[in-house]
Amino acid sequence: VSKDKGGARRFATVPVALGDRSYPIHIGSGLLGWLGGEIARHTKATRAAVVTVPAVGRRYAGRLLPSLREAGLETGQIAVRDGDSHKNLREAARLYDALLDFRADRATVVVALGGGTVGDLAGFAAATFLRGLPFVQIPTTLLAMVDASVGGKVGVNLPRGKNLVGAFYQPRLVGIDIDTLASLPVRERAAGLAEVIKAGLLWDAAFFEQLEGNAENVLRLKPEVLLPTIERACAIKAEIVAEDERESGRRMLLNLGHTLAHAIESLSRYRGILHGEAVAIGMLFAARRSEALGLCPPGVAGRVERLLGRLGLPTDLPPYPRRAYLSALRVDKKRRDARIQFVALRAVGRAETVPLTPAEILPAGE
Ligand SMILES: NC(=O)c1ccc[n+]([C@@H]2O[C@H](COP(=O)([O-])OP(=O)(O)OC[C@H]3O[C@@H](n4cnc5c(N)ncnc54)[C@H](O)[C@@H]3O)[C@@H](O)[C@H]2O)c1
Ligand SMILES: [Zn+2]
Q1: pLDDT at 162 (0 to 100)
Q2: Which ligand 1 atom is at minimum distance from the Cα of 53?
Q3: CA of 171 to the centre of ligand 1 (A)
Q4: Over residues 110-137, mean pLDDT
């Protein structure tokens, strides 16, 4: 483990243990210029299609592509449209076309360079094009680093709901270059921190407490806290995914806050609100609801609200009519019959699923 002058660690690897589909998450500074060899080693590919959005490609493709070429890979760069509103089947079809133009074959690795929308979309294309190409995630937003790039969920939105089409498709490698966060707007960083807070809240009380102590420093990208925070959030997700890859049990806990978040995103048509912001609102909602249902002691929601508030994250439900929320909740993927597996809190650091109807999740008059 190398350290920089300030004594902060500069590199860490979190293993994701999934049998013969196991892979490492490398986290560090300056990784883009080093990843080419790792990608070649983990995929045995001869060509690399780097899928990115213009805002990210312009800044960072120039560091990654030479390292891929030095490792002997032939490279191509494919631009997709930016934003969650373009994470859809039409954009996937455009991506298939671009892969055909690149003459992608089974020895072509699809490298997602960007945020969660690029990772989900490129991963979905990788999972389905020619029935599956090797895939690598290089997340460049905090949200994608700590959540979206880990665990193998890929997919696209349908007009009627988030992530309704997709697959479990594990990457061969995740490479997190924390230097890329320097250009990420602070609002996006805060949205990513919402998922970090979520990981602590549902799994690790000590980590949550640590964030209560240093969240602002993570937001400011202070090196001594940034890498360990990303590392711990990845490790929590990796641990849960290793136990329950296909979300039949424990993995559902990672949906803390997401039942409401997905409803909010769908009602806002994926515009105006960031995914992590919707998660912040949904997470506080879940904490309050858990208290109201007597599932967790009072005070938990207050701590969640204060921490989110300090980071400037939104906490109030956008004022859509209740019936709009109820119909959005009815398309939730975690639905079984009329009930949704709602993730409730028992305490800070402990969550469980409770089957609730949409009307129980959102009672009249609240
Ligand atoms: N697959 C999963 O398990 C999973 C988990 C959580 C979220 N998601 C999905 O992830 C998506 C959200 O991801 P996101 O929050 O990363 O958003 P995003 O991918 O839309 O990126 C946000 C914005 O930041 C820009 N950007 C990215 N990296 C940058 C950088 N380093 N510097 C400057 N700008 C940069 C992008 O161009 C974009 O405009 C949603 O679609 C959500 O459903 C998936
Ligand atoms: Zn999420």
Answers
A1: 78
A2: 37
A3: 17
A4: 98
